[in-house]
Amino acid sequence: MKTFEKNIEQDDDSIKKLPLVQVKNLRKYFSVGKQKLKAVDGLNFDISEGETVGLVGESGCGKSTAGKAMIRLYEPTDGEVLFQGKNIYDHSEKQMAKIRRDIQLIFQDPYASLNPRMTVEEIIGEPLTIHGVVKGKEKKKRVEELLKLVGLSPEHINRFPHEFSGGQRQRIGIARALALNPKFIVCDEPISALDVSIQAQVVNLLKDLQKEMGLTYLFIAHDLSMVKYISDRILVMYLGKMMEFSDSETLCKEPLHPYTKALLSAVPIPDPTMKRERIVLKGDVPSPINPPSGCVFRTRCPNAMEICSSAVPEWKEQKPGHFVACHLYW
């Protein structure tokens, strides 16, 4: 009997050590006439509890689609997303309703994502009502607590979205995402629609909330400098595929993939006396309906070789914890 109890304890420990989120061979294709648009084409990575993974790449590379597929706003074409060790795509609608309390989304546009006909109390309180968490005075009290948590006054509770600035509206969106005490939040470019001065405030708020509530983030953005600041690890995407994945410090100091190097060369340096060679990529991003053969980046890569057109580069661990898909490292 003791041996059996020991085995149960060992199993529990192994479950606890699993990453909170595991993405396995995730693909999401959209039908465009008779063709397939490959928005996400084979993602494999994980996010540990309390960690922030940054997801970067040019517009149209599939970042937002990947984020929405990870929380099942999109049904995948193929692959799995494991949350606490269980594939969310295997759950029924009733089971997903329970899972959605632990998985939330912060939208990109802080105005379009808020119903203009609802008050702040109704917007933030809606998840509480849908999931039957609290009602009446308790709900109002919870909404006031959430407003304080994101740096807004409880006096704002009866106002409408148009009465707030962009930064304040995004704070309302963050409060709504926090209403059910989630474990994992997908931040879908939450700062791209905000002024630069407000972006830092929102990112600092997200970092503070993570420490206070033990949150886990997938942080999607264009700005690599901001992603480096908030993220523990960074995944670089191009045309639906993974290019490079490493801890943020290593990726920004020792990038391996030519695409990552080009993205980093575009990040402004705060010191005007410092100069850096700008890597300008030629041409436009190819259509995801008809991507290039071999390496999808080869048509714009300054280091393209003959093999790049015929063979898909292998996703490999070049250094401990530093993964890259490039023929330069075969």
Write a brief caption for the model.
The chain is an alpha/beta fold. The chain is built from ten helices and twelve strands. The chain has one domain: P-loop containing nucleotide triphosphate hydrolases (Rossmann fold).
What key attributes describe this structure?
330 residues; Rossmann fold; alpha/beta; eight-stranded mixed beta sheet; disordered N terminus; 23% strand; four-stranded antiparallel beta sheet
Distance between the termini: 52 Å
CATH topology: Rossmann fold
Mean pLDDT figure: 90
Instruction: Supply the helix-strand structural class.
Output: alpha/beta
> What is the CATH superfamily label?
P-loop containing nucleotide triphosphate hydrolases
Number of helices: 10
Query: What shape does the CA trace take?
Result: globular
Helix content: 25-40%
> Class, according to the CATH hierarchy?
Alpha Beta
Beta strands, count:
12
Report on the biggest sheet: 8 strands, mixed
Trace the largest sheet across and list its strands.
6-7-8-3-9-10-12-11
Counted up, domains total 1
Structural write-up:
- This protein has helices at about 1-15, 65-70, 95-100, 120-130, 135-150, 165-180, 195-215, 225-230, 250-255, 260-265, and strands at about 20-30, 35-45, 50-55, 80-85, 85, 105, 185-190, 215-220, 235-240, 240-245, 315-320, 320-325.
- With about 325 residues, it is an alpha/beta fold.
- Helix 4 packs across helix 5 (about 135-150) and helix 5 crosses helix 6 (about 165-180).
- It is globular.
- The model is unreliable at about 1-10 (pLDDT under 50).
